[in-house]
Each structure stands twice: as structure tokens, then as C-alpha cells.
């Protein structure tokens, strides 16, 4: 079924267009070697992925600040791996990770093709909870920034998805109307339910085919968007 009467598309960035997990693993491989931390990188990344998601939820909900997010997610991984790292080194690793993360530029399969397909038909924009400097570098290094007319991040908006204020901010910045706009993202809570609660239509990028309420529009591959938009 095609979605009609839309003029504006808002994309999430991480885990939707930009392959966060692949790029993150490459960054950790670089910085752990650089600082001679003798842990197994795949083991480290396996632990980091769910821990990072949990800390991002705490950050999104306003329960921790940016510094706590960046420090605690690494500290917890090292604790699980039973490898002792001084606080100063954890802070150094945290800073190096943020520096190296956006230097990698792997996108999800089909990302460029679907953006090329959508760009002539719709106004494209980004809404991200990521930090402005990091997200801007990701967009530039992956060579997709030119597809998007505006980029709304949580620092700019002063609030984070799923709160309605970031969607309201993004609509105003894009000079878009709610009824002719749609949000596409990978997080049911932050992207999809947040948008729907605001009254904005949404499509769930369900990469792992998670069980989803039947009333939620979804795709399992980015190229599936060509069939409905």
C-alpha cells in the first residue's frame, strides 16, 4: 500500500541510514589498539552494544548527562570483561571514540539508492538525538549531507526524541506541515511512538524483523521504502 499526500520526510540517522554498529566497531578497534588495551575487540563490542542502548535510553529520559553517558558505558563494559582501566584512561578512550566514530562512513545497504529515489519527490530532513558536531561529521564523511535540507539535533532543539518538542522544532525549522510529513527511524520508542504521539505519521525501520503492533507501518530494508513512498 502506497503512502500518499506526503511532501516531507524526516529520517533518523544512527541505526537507520548510518550503520552505527559497524562504524562503532571500527572505531573501537582503532582506539583500543592505539592505547594498547589488550581486550578482544569483538567481545568488547558484543558487550557494548546493549549497554550503549541502555545508557542512551537513560540519557534520552533525562536521567544522566552527556559525560555520564560517555564514561559509564565504557566503564561497565570493562567491568564485565574484568579488565581494570583507570578513570583517566576511560575518559581518554571516551574522547578518542567520539573523535574516531564519525571518521568511518558505512551506510546501510540501499541508503544512497533510496535517498536518490526520494530526493526528487520529497523534502528530506534529519531528526537525531546525537550530538551536533558528531552528527554533522557523520553526514559529511558519508557524503549524504546534500540530500537533507535541515538537520535537527537534540542540542539544537533543547530536547530529545521521543519528546514532542523536538518534532515540533524540526517541523518549524523545515517549514513543514505535520499532516504532509512522515518520520522514518529504527526506534519504536524514540522515533515511531514519539512521532505518533505528536500526531506525525511514521515508518519503522525494522531491520531485525522485531514483533511489532499491526497498526505501525514498517519496512525491513531501506529499499522497501521505494514500494510505499
UniProtKB/TrEMBL annotation:
<dbReference type="InterPro" id="IPR041492">
    <property type="entry name" value="HAD_2"/>
</dbReference>
<dbReference type="InterPro" id="IPR052550">
    <property type="entry name" value="Pyrimidine_5'-ntase_YjjG"/>
</dbReference>
<dbReference type="InterPro" id="IPR023214">
    <property type="entry name" value="HAD_sf"/>
</dbReference>
<dbReference type="InterPro" id="IPR023198">
    <property type="entry name" value="PGP-like_dom2"/>
</dbReference>
<dbReference type="InterPro" id="IPR006439">
    <property type="entry name" value="HAD-SF_hydro_IA"/>
</dbReference>
<dbReference type="InterPro" id="IPR011951">
    <property type="entry name" value="HAD-SF_hydro_IA_YjjG/PynA"/>
</dbReference>
<dbReference type="InterPro" id="IPR036412">
    <property type="entry name" value="HAD-like_sf"/>
</dbReference>
<protein>
    <submittedName>
        <fullName>YjjG family noncanonical pyrimidine nucleotidase</fullName>
    </submittedName>
</protein>
<dbReference type="Pfam" id="PF13419">
    <property type="entry name" value="HAD_2"/>
</dbReference>
Amino acid at each position: 500500500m502506497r503512502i500518499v499526500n506526503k511532501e516531507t520526510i524526516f529520517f533518523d540517522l544512527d541505526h537507520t541510514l548510518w550503520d552505527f554498529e559497524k562504524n562503532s566497531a571500527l572505531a573501537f578497534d582503532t582506539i583500543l589498539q592505539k592505547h594498547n588495551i589488550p581486550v578482544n575487540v569483538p567481545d568488547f563490542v558484543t558487550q557494548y552494544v546493549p549497554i550503549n542502548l541502555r545508557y542512551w535510553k537513560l540519557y534520552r529520559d533525562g536521567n544522566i548527562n552527556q559525560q555520564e553517558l560517555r564514561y559509564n558505558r565504557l566503564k561497565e563494559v570493562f567491568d564485565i570483561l574484568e579488565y581494570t582501566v583507570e578513570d583517566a584512561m576511560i575518559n581518554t578512550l571516551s574522547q578518542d571514540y567520539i573523535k574516531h566514530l564519525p571518521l568511518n562512513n558505512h551506510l546501510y545497504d540501499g541508503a544512497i539508492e533510496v535517498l536518490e529515489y526520494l530526493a526528487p519527490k520529497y523534502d528530506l530532513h534529519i531528526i537525531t538525538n546525537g550530538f551536533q558536531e558528531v552528527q554533522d561529521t557523520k553526514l559529511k564523511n558519508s557524503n549524504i549531507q546534500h540530500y537533507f535540507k535541515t538537520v535537527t539535533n537534540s542540542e539544537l532543539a533543547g530536547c530529545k526524541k521521543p519528546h514532542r518538542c523536538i518534532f515540533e522544532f524540526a517541523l518549524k525549522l523545515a517549514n513543514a506541515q505535520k499532516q504532509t510529513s512522515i518520520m522514518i527511524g529504527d526506534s519504536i520508542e524514540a522515533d515511531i511512538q514519539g512521532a505518533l504521539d505528536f500526531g506525525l505519521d511514521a515508518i519503522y525501520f525494522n531491520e531485525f524483523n522485531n514483533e511489532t503492533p499491526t497498526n505501525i507501518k514498517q519496512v525491513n530494508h531501506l529499499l522497501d521504502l521505494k514500494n510505499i513512498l
